[in-house]
Amino acid sequence: MLIRIDPQSPEPLFEQVVFAVKSACAKGILAPGERLPSVRELARDLAINPNTVVRAYEVLERDGVVVRRQGAGCFVSDRGSDLALAEKRRQLQESLRRAVTEAFHLGFQAEDVKKALAQCLEEVQFESKRRQA
Amino acid sequence: MLIRIDPQSPEPLFEQVVFAVKSACAKGILAPGERLPSVRELARDLAINPNTVVRAYEVLERDGVVVRRQGAGCFVSDRGSDLALAEKRRQLQESLRRAVTEAFHLGFQAEDVKKALAQCLEEVQFESKRRQA
Amino acid sequence: MLIRIDPQSPEPLFEQVVFAVKSACAKGILAPGERLPSVRELARDLAINPNTVVRAYEVLERDGVVVRRQGAGCFVSDRGSDLALAEKRRQLQESLRRAVTEAFHLGFQAEDVKKALAQCLEEVQFESKRRQA
Amino acid sequence: MLIRIDPQSPEPLFEQVVFAVKSACAKGILAPGERLPSVRELARDLAINPNTVVRAYEVLERDGVVVRRQGAGCFVSDRGSDLALAEKRRQLQESLRRAVTEAFHLGFQAEDVKKALAQCLEEVQFESKRRQA
DNA sequence: GTGGTCTAGACCACA
DNA sequence: GTGGTCTAGACCACG
């Protein structure tokens, strides 16, 4: 099974599911067009309430990662984010700033962070999915 | 004033304060040993509830960023994180993985992310407070 | 009270709330920065479940219409949509195409539709809230 | 082939078929009296379940767009909507209000909306099938 | 007080 | 079978 969560984590369950799916997409484990587990199936496998899975799938749809089709299932989207480029850049900067600030307080040097990033980038199949708007 | 928050942001106020202080430390705006504003002073400046500032300072102390001394105030710690190196590495990887996964879904290329990281690193005067191998 | 819904309508309750809020914003009844009724309050007034209101507020937040701040309330956002211009245009075209197709089947002429649109436009305080990204 | 649908869209398949037929009528691609593809034929062409096509044709008949004749097929109606004028006006206003409200939140100006409408109107050969005052 | 998360279980709509 | 909506009610987190 491709999606796992930790019920002990302080991170909300539905957010753990969201991140797990996004991560699987980035790593190529889930390809565009592929079908995700059904709501009930995933809920059973993760031992959580179906509503929590629904919630996660809703967030994934709003983020442009999946499309949900009534009666059919939930599928990995083949389109990318519809945000304006400026907004995309803002979000990228923000998430990196967080990581960098944490790295500083952990005592890492700039070079350490760059190396760690390079390693992360290798883990994902890093090719932009589609045109930049 | 060194700390700013955005009351419009959905991010909890105390977390904004926590991040702002951590960020100021990373940028060298706050040096080790330096005294932070008093709870009442900061609460007045930011126009927020003193309890919210107390909460932020508590979290900062728990994270090893500041030390609160009874009656004297709250000071930037000169100690680094006391976590084991392996645990630090894990945390760094995790925060970068988040950023990288988001970047993928925003449609960025590996090079874009590296450039953005370099820019972030330049924004902070990136020298570890204490090197810990 | 500014928000009303019709429990008989086939349109989902939460969507009715979403549209009512968007409409109130467009008409200037709700100004940027203004606070919406609390979840419990609105649920009581509309005689629906609080979860349904939460759902509506979530959708409004994802659409950039409001920001929800834990412990504080739900406020009309002063920022606009973060979508790429191309995507905005696509959405505008799509919603107009629907309206135009319906108008045709109702037997209206092009001029009728234009006049009706002019009337709708007058009903709203039609000034773009912010810069185009 | 005159009808196309997008299996990726979250919109229900039968609704896509309904809209595609209405749209084809408005554009003059389907003329009054003309015969639509048979249920099985269309289902095969669109690679969807025949039941879905049946459902779409039912809705189209209910909306007065087509007439289904037992054993003969499904034909574009030559009658207009038989609603009262006041009700038609109300429906037109409502669909435009939706579009206008969305346009506001997308940051468009009144002029933008008018231009976009004019473009939509040109796309369809806009002459009412039957004038009904 | 506010919103945020989660569960349990009902009933409806789509394919 | 699938997802979509809604209710009821619990408990947690923020200000």
Write a brief caption for the model.
The structure is a homotetramer of 133-residue chains. By secondary structure, chain A is mostly helical.
CATH superfamily of the largest domain in chain A: Winged helix-like DNA-binding domain superfamily/Winged helix DNA-binding domain
**Most extensive interface:** A-B, 49 and 50 residues
Query: Per the principal axes of the C-alpha atoms, what is the gross shape of chain A?
Result: globular
How many strands, which pairing sense, and closed or not: the largest β-sheet of chain A? 2 strands, antiparallel
Report the order of strands and helices of chain A.
Answer: HHHEEHH
Oligomer: homotetramer
Radius of gyration of chain A: 17 Å
Distance between the ends of chain A: 34 Å
Uncertain regions of chain A: pLDDT < 50 for 5+ in a row? none
The SS-based structural class of chain A is mainly alpha
Question: What do you see in this structure?
Answer:
- The structure is a homotetramer of 133-residue chains.
- The first copy, chain A, contains five helices and two strands.
- The first copy, chain A, has helices at residues 13-26, 39-46, 50-62, 85-105, 110-123, and strands at residues 66-69, 73-76.
- In chain A, helix 1 packs across helix 3.
- Chain A folds into two domains: 13-76, Arc Repressor Mutant, subunit A, CATH 1.10.10; 85-132, no CATH class.
- In chain A, 53% of the residues lie in helices and 6% in strands.
- In chain A, strands 1-2 form a two-stranded antiparallel ribbon.
- The radius of gyration of chain A is 17 Å and the shape is globular.
- The first copy, chain A, has 133 residues and is mainly α.
- At the A-B interface, helix 1, helix 4 and helix 5 of A face helix 1, helix 4 and helix 5 of B.
- The first copy, chain A, binds a DNA duplex (15 and 15 nucleotides) through residues 12-14, 38-40, 48-52, 54-55, 57, 68-74.
